[in-house]
């Protein structure tokens, strides 16, 4: 029988973290199915889905828990195999891209509007950086969403455009 777990790890960034974590997972005979990793400020953050034989799960957990002694916050949650979507509903994938001047509330506005329409945010990545000439804070957001089949592409595009206009950012929709 196959076991699945989600690992989260946060700690001070340094070279070799990915090698250490992936080595422990490999030695426990687990496979990394999906992952996201990034340096945020001076911290390294990781979240991943791994799978392997159920009888090897205790070994994987023990090895990954040892990372706490190196100053990492480690969370491990057993889960099940990925499913096609929330409650098995037919969903259509889209990509939403947002760019503009950074200000508070952009992520929340999009997340709230999407949640009200039962649209699932599957991935979300944001970044704020200084513009090359002016130094003004520029914001970018990329997300992959899963849209219920009963929402038309025209209605979805109108929603994304309206949200962009309301927040003074360029927001575009494309097939994922």
Topology overview:
Blueprint: E1 2-12, H1 17-27, E2 30-40, E3 43-53, H2 57-65, E4 73-79, E5 91-101, H3 106-116, E6 120-130, E7 137-148, H4 153-166, E8 169-175
Antiparallel strand pairs: 1-3, 1-4, 2-3, 5-7, 5-8, 6-7
Fold and architecture overview:
By secondary structure, the protein is an alpha+beta fold. The chain has 2 domains: 78 residues, ACT domain (Alpha-Beta Plaits); 90 residues, ACT domain (Alpha-Beta Plaits, 2-Layer Sandwich), CATH 3.30.70. The protein is 26% helix and 46% strand. 16% of the residues are buried.
Number of continuous helical runs: 4
Provide mean pLDDT, rounded.
94
| Succession of helices and strands | EHEEHEEHEEHE
Uncertain regions spanning at least 5 consecutive residues? none
Shape: flat
Proportion of β residues? over 45%
Let me know the CATH homologous superfamily of the largest domain.
ACT domain
SS content category = alpha+beta
List keywords for this structure.
single chain; 176 residues; Alpha-Beta Plaits; 8 strands
Task: Kindly summarize this structure in a few lines.
By secondary structure, the chain is of the alpha+beta class. The chain has helices at residues 17-27, 57-65, 106-116, 153-166, and strands spanning 2-12, 30-40, 43-53, 73-79, 91-101, 120-130, 137-148, 169-175. Strands 2-3-1-4 form a four-stranded antiparallel β-sheet, covered by helices on one side. The protein has a four-stranded antiparallel β-sheet with strand order 6-7-5-8, with helices on one face.
């Amino acid at each position: 029988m196959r076991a699945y777990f989600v690992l989260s790890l946060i700690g001070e960034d340094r070279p070799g973290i990915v090698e250490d974590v992936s080595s422990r997972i490999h030695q426990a005979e687990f496979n990394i199915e999906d992952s996201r990793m990034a340096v945020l400020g001076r911290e390294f953050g990781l979240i991943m889905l791994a799978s392997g034989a159920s009888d090897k799960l205790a070994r994987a957990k023990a090895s990954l828990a040892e990372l706490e002694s190196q100053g990492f916050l480690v969370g491990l949650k057993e889960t099940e195999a990925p499913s096609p979507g929330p409650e098995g509903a037919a969903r259509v994938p889209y990509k939403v891209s947002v760019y503009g001047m950074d200000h508070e509330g952009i992520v929340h506005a999009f997340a709230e509007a999407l949640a009200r329409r039962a649209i699932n945010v599957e991935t979300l990545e944001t970044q704020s950086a200084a513009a090359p000439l002016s130094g003004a804070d520029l914001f970018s957001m990329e997300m992959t969403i899963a849209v219920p089949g009963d929402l038309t592409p025209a209605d979805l595009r109108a929603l994304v455009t309206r949200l962009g206009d309301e927040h003074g950012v360029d927001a575009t929709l494309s097939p994922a």
